[in-house]
Amino acid sequence: MKVIIARCSVDYSGRLNAHLPLATRALMLKNDGSLLIHSDGGSYKPLNWMSPPCILVVEEPDPDQIAAGVQRLWRVSHAKTADVLVVSFHEVLAEIDHDLGDDPGLIKEGVESHLQQLLSEQLEILGPGFTLVRREFMTAIGPVDILARDEDGRHVAIELKRRGDIDGVEQLTRYLELLNRDSLLRPVTGIFAAQEIKPQARTLAEDRGIRCVVLDYDAMRGVDDAHLRLF
C-alpha cells in the first residue's frame, strides 16, 4: 500500500463530473489497484475514489499546469468504463510504501454460526421442553439452521439471523413448505430468531404463523445477565 499526504486537487469525469479544489488530503493506493482520497473529516467515507480494475499512469504536467504549481499528475482510468480520476499534486508532504501482507478478514462477534451454536445449547430460551434434533438440518434447498422439537414433540424449524428482515422470513417460509411435505416431519412450525427483527419482517412472519423471538446475545454468552439488570 502507498499512502501519500499531499496538497492536491482532484478531477473526476465519467457518469458525472466532480472537482475537489486544492487542499491537503490523504491518498491511499492499494495493491488491488484501488485509489481512495480522504480528508481529515467525514468519517470513514473517502471524498472520491476509483475501484479496481483500474490503471494508474503517472504523467508530467504541461507548462500551464507547472505555472499553476502542479508538480505531478496521476491519471487513473477504470478498465471497464470511461471513468477517469486525475490527481494534480502541488506538494507532497509525506509518502509511505508498505506491504501489509495477507489480511485474515474481519471476524465478527454475534455472527449467525455462533448464535446457532449458543441457541442449540440453550433451547430453553424458546420455551420449556424444547429439544434439539439437529443443527444445519439439510433440505433440498439448503440447511435449516436448527431443527428442534417442542414440548409436545412437534418439529420446529428455526431460522437465525443477526438482523431479521423480510428476506429471512421468506427463506424460512420456503423451508417450512418443503419440510411439511415430509410425512415423517409434519406438522412443522417455524421460529424466526434474531438479535433484532425489523417491524415489516415481524408483521410478515406473524401473518404466516411464524413465531418471532428476539435473542439477547450478551446474555446467551454469559457476558450480561438480564436478570441482574435494574433497567
Tell me the domain tally: 2
Strand order of the largest sheet: 4-3-2-1-7-6-5
Q: DSSP helix count?
A: 5
Quote the average pLDDT: 89
Q: How would the global form be characterised?
A: elongated
**Regarding CATH, which class of the largest domain?**
Alpha Beta
In the CATH classification, which architecture of the largest domain applies?
3-Layer(aba) Sandwich
What is the H/E order? EEEEEHEEHEEEHEHEH
Cα-to-Cα separation, first versus last residue? 48 Å
Strand content: 35-45%
The percentage helix is 10-25%
The gyration radius over C-alpha positions equals: 27 Å
Description of the molecule:
By secondary structure, the chain is α+β, with helices and mostly antiparallel strands. It has two domains: 2-97, Protein Yojf, Chain: A, CATH 2.70.180.20; 112-228, 3-Layer(aba) Sandwich (Trna Endonuclease, Chain: A, domain 1), CATH 3.40.1350. 18% of the residues lie in helices and 43% in strands. The chain is built from five helices and twelve strands. It has helices at 63-67, 112-121, 166-179, 199-207, 217-220; strands spanning 2-13, 18-29, 35-38, 48-50, 54-59, 72-78, 84-97, 131-139, 142-149, 155-164, 188-197, 211-214. Strands 4-3-2-1-7-6-5 form a seven-stranded antiparallel beta sheet, with no helix packed on it. Strand 2 (18-29) and strand 3 form a beta hairpin. Helix 3 (166-179) packs parallel to helix 4 (199-207). The relative contact order is 0.11.
